[in-house]
Design brief:
CATH topology of the largest domain: Aminopeptidase
Structural class: alpha+beta
Oligomer: single chain
CATH architecture of the largest domain: 3-Layer(aba) Sandwich
Radius of gyration: 19 Å
Number of helices: 7
Order of helices and strands: EHEEEEHEHEEHHEEEHEHE
Distance between the termini: 17 Å
CATH superfamily of the largest domain: Gcn5-related N-acetyltransferase (GNAT)
Length: 253
């Protein structure tokens, strides 16, 4: 079956189909955008989001396991599917295996229920649009990051983050040495990406705390690789807590 282009004028129609197929789903409110693709049958709807790093991120909703497996198996190219869950993953493991996907990462969700003081709003460096390519290249090439498991922002997303003052940076010798990307919606913050090459990652976290305090944000959520003990230790030292939600990443090439 060939992928079809999403018509954003039909978002309501797509949503109705998605929410009528809820037996097997990894769809949790993802938006429909120009350039997105989809597969649809009587029992399954699959939203396919192209990434500018030459792969597709896949969100499926189905009431027929066999039909879902057949569609996922039929998709060409590199396809990545995430399953966030607080419970048992056995059913999805079997679906993914039967469709030819393999697990390449497990992430835990962490959150800050409150924000420490210690930063300085006057000392914070906000990224500018002129920094976009440098930041994009740094996190795209950063050791330990994977575009498949870490949801690295596209150039378009990064541009939006910068325009909203959601990218804080460190500099050394006039070059960017670290960055913290996040977004704010109401009283909540989504921590998208943090990297540092000059042992100043804690400053970026404190800077982020100051920004969130100044905007009246009450909590912040992020994801960390279950095996990244160093990052988890730093986050927890800064007051983060780990909850029971995990995100499993599967890939088929």
């Amino acid at each position: 079956m060939n992928l079809q282009k999403i018509d954003t004028a039909k978002t309501g129609e797509y949503m109705k189909r998605i929410f009528s197929f809820r037996s097997y789903t990894n769809y949790f409110g993802q938006s429909f955008s120009e350039g997105d693709l989809y597969l649809s049958t009587e029992h399954t709807f699959i939203l396919v989001k192209p990434d500018d790093r030459d792969f597709h991120r896949v969100y499926a909703s189905s009431n027929d396991k066999g039909n879902l497996i057949a569609l996922l198996k039929s998709m060409e190219g590199i396809n990545v599917l995430n399953v966030p869950t607080k419970g048992d993953i056995t059913t999805w493991e079997q679906i993914m295996s039967d469709a030819g996907y393999e697990n390449i990462g497990i992430y835990e969700r962490f959150y800050y229920p409150e924000f420490r003081t210690g930063g300085d709003l006057d000392d914070i460096i906000y990224a500018k649009l002129s920094d976009l390519e440098e930041i994009y290249n740094l996190y795209s090439e950063y050791e330990g990051f994977s575009p498949y498991t870490d949801h690295l922002p596209s150039r378009a997303e990064l541009k939006q983050f910068i325009e909203n003052d959601y990218v804080l940076i460190n500099k050394q010798n006039d070059k960017i040495s670290g960055a913290h990307l996040f977004s704010i919606k109401g009283k909540k913050c989504d921590l998208r990406l943090l990297f540092d090459m000059n042992n100043k990652g804690i400053k970026l976290i404190l800077d982020m705390f100051e920004v969130l305090n100044s905007k009246g944000v009450s909590c912040a959520y992020g994801w960390v690789n279950i095996g990244n003990v160093k990052a988890k230790t730093i986050y927890q030292l800064m007051g983060a807590q780990i909850d029971i939600l995990k995100d499993y990443t599967y890939i088929k090439k």
